[in-house]
Amino acid sequence: MNWGTQLYLSAEEKKRYSLDEIEKRLKRILQRPEMSRLLFWNTEDDQYSEIVLRLCRESGTECWLWFPVLADTLVSTDNAQPSINHKGESGLCSPGSMKLSGKGEEDFSFTCPSDRTFEKLSEEHLDDLLDRYDYDGVFLDRIRYPSFANGLPLLYSCVCPECCSRMNIDREGIAGEFESLSGDDFLQLFCGDEPTGRTEQRFPLIHRFVKERMRLITEKVERLNRIIRSRDKGMALDLFSPGLARAVGQDYAALSQIADWIKPMTYAMAWGPAGIPLELDCLFRGIRETFSDMEEDKIIKTLEKMMGHDLKPYWDKRSETGFPSSLAFSEWKRAEEYSESCRFFPGIELVHSELFQTKVPESRAAEAVDLFSGNAEILACWNCLEIPELYFTMLDQG
Predict the structure, then answer these.
(1) Span 340-376, pLDDT tens digits
(2) Which residue in 6, 19, 171, 353 is deepest, having the highest Cβ count within 10 Å?
(3) Number of other residues whose CB lies within 10 A of the CB of residue 373
(4) What is the distance between the alpha carbons of residues 265 and 142, in angstroms, rounded to a whole number?
(5) How far is it, in rounded angstroms, from Cα 198 to Cα 177?
(6) Which residues of the chain have pLDDT under 70?
(7) Dist CA 179 CA 175 (whole Å)
(8) How far is residue 63 from each of residues 39, 59, 100, 209, 265, measured CA to CA in Å?
């Protein structure tokens, strides 16, 4: 079974590991018989990019530029328009937001997709990187709106004047609709299938808003795709797991018509951003604190319907053991239903992360690899520097 992995190098990793340590570890990974592709994010434009590309070429491994688009970007966001809700809030916003460890990890503060000045800077930087480095393709990440982990109020972004104009939505009108939502209304609009009937009639602007956000994200992907294809490079996407994707503006049906392949973030174990346990926990807490009349069981049942999987038996230990690998597998199969031409490589978290509360035990790693063995090319996440060697051996034997 072929597999790939990801390499993330920020200033933090370069302090923790010497260049020699990184090079030796990467060589061992690239020499593994079933290793097929590396997704590489270097937060600083330095010698590491040339070194990693050289090692990939020497081993015959594909090397893809891992390129964040709307958060934790490779260009400065100092003057960029943040993605804001109707109260002007951005970044992390209670209730429901995750708690960062303070160890220097990404901050997941999202830029508005309608900021044309920032968009131009980002596109020029991508063009420059493809000019100077011979990547096989580009893997677009952070191509979405804030998630449940940013806090429930940030689900109502972006409603800056430019976004409202592009969506043909009255800003004051949609602010009034947001403020009049009940818990049931919220669940139907953001956590279920596309609403119809009474909910759509009472909240026409929010109904339009949810659909238009997906259009704006798809349009941004199309713009970047034109740059990438003009260089005769491949294009791939890092998307939220299908059950969560609609809430962050990602349209699997449309995006799978553009990308060569997609990595659904089928993180059933991870207690970190985009990890299903943390995202659902943030959503659950946000709903409970915002709509105090909502019963816990009703919320959990809605989340089970959203994910298409039983969650209740695992709910009380979600921060400790997450959800079973069967959830990751069913989410991957769900992604495959969107397209026959696009390939879907499940992202499986196999890290012992220093930054997030995620240390995947050997038994869970073996369970996940065994479940996907023979079915799909696994992408071992998030950072190969934090994945035990034993887990790469499991992938080779899968």
Answers:
(1) 999 999 999 999 876 666 789 999 999 999 999 887 7
(2) 6
(3) 14
(4) 12
(5) 14
(6) 100-107, 193-197, 354-357
(7) 6
(8) 6, 11, 30, 37, 20
CA 42: distance to chain centroid? 17
Residue located via tokens 């100092």: 78
Q: Is 72 left (phi over 0), alpha (psi -120 to 50) or beta?
A: left
- Residues 388 and 263: their CA atoms lie apart, in Å, by 21
Instruction: Say what the pLDDT of residue 349 is.
Output: 94
Find out whether 378 and 398 touch, Cβ atoms under 8 Å.
yes
Q: What is the CA radius of gyration of the chain?
A: 20
Geometric angle at alpha carbon 308, from 303 and 314, rounded to 5°: 60
CB 368 within 8 A of CB 339: no
DSSP 3-state of 39: strand
Are the beta carbons of 163 and 170 closer than 8 angstroms?
no
Q: Taking Cα atoms as reference points, which of 230, 232, 214, 223 lies closest to residue 258?
A: 223
What is the maximum span of the chain, computed from C-alpha positions, in angstroms? 62
CA atoms within 13 A on the CB side of 35: 26
Res 192: pLDDT:
76
Q: How far apart are CA 381 and CA 368, in angstroms?
A: 12
Q: Which residues pair with 40 in a beta bridge?
A: 7, 65
Is residue 34 within 8 A of residue 397, CB to CB? The reply is no
Q: What are phi and psi of 92, to 5 degrees?
A: -110, 135
SS3 202: helix
Q: Which tens digits make up the pLDDT trace of 68-110?
A: 999 999 999 999 999 999 999 999 999 999 876 555 455 678 9
- Spell out the domains of the chain, with CATH numbers in brackets: 3-397 (3.20.20.80)
| Residue 236: strand pairing partners | 139, 261
Q: Is the dihedral of CA 151, 349, 58, 19 positive or negative?
A: positive
Which residues are CB-neighbours of 141 under 8 A, at least 6 positions away?
A: 41, 66, 67, 68, 69, 238
Q: Give pLDDT, residue 346.
A: 96
Q: In what order do the strands lie in the sheet with 137-141?
A: 343-344, 261-265, 234-240, 137-141, 62-68, 35-42, 3-9, 378-381, 347-349
Alpha-carbon gap, residue 169 to 164, rounded angstroms: 5
User: What's the whole-model pTM score?
Assistant: 0.96
pLDDT value of position 167:
98
